[in-house]
UniProtKB/TrEMBL annotation:
Binding site residues for (6R)-10-formyltetrahydrofolate: 109
Protein name: Phosphoribosylglycinamide formyltransferase
HAMAP family noted in UniProt: PurN (MF_01930)
Pathway(s) served: Purine metabolism; IMP biosynthesis via de novo pathway; N(2)-formyl-N(1)-(5-phospho-D-ribosyl)glycinamide from N(1)-(5-phospho-D-ribosyl)glycinamide (10-formyl THF route): step 1/1
List of catalytic residues: 111
Recorded name of the encoding gene: purN
GO biological process, one term: 'de novo' IMP biosynthetic process
Amino acid sequence: MSGVHVAVLASHNGSNLRALHRTSLSPDSPFTISLVISNNSGSGALAFARDAGIPALHLSGSTHPEPELLDAAIRSALTAHETDLVVTAGYMKKLGPRTRAEYTSRIVNVHPALLPRHGGKGMYGNAVHEAVLASGDTVSGPTVHLVTEDYDAGPVLAQARVPVVPGDTAESLAERVLVAEHDLLPAVVRRLAASMSHTPTPHRRPW
Ligand code: GAR
């Protein structure tokens, strides 16, 4: 497997995983998806990964009831697959401290609003879009940022702007933002992977 190894963590549908996978298949892609982890054994993300022949693991509070052991299992799966970069794409759980420490500045998350607006604990899925609509904001859009200890608080790498239109529901806004995520996230991962692959190993951390 060539290029920068990207592990994707996803909880549900996995449309961002599919967008990343499409990008990874282009002949000049600087990255490959080397592992998919989901906390949800029935997720679309795991089903897609298995169909696509990507190593896929279900690791959750049901496989590892102790949070410390779950954190250790995720960290060791990432290590075993020689992960360079971790992407949380619709992953509805917080990564544990050992995994965050091992991959400091190498964990990227996509959030479906323009951080620092509408982020933080409990802000995921439709709750985010409902908050955007309730605020009266006329623009929303995805943010790709580095993961730090606090929810949705790490440095922003990129954002895309999407209009909020009269009559929008959380579902219609979510759909429009998701389309923008499918461009933004692969573009950022591609850029990061390209800069990592030009940095000599083993310390390929350009940022
Ligand atoms: C995406 O909109 C992503 O931004 C959001 O969940 C959706 C997952 O879609 N993530 C969060 O709300 C986390 N704060 P997908 O499973 O189809 O990629």
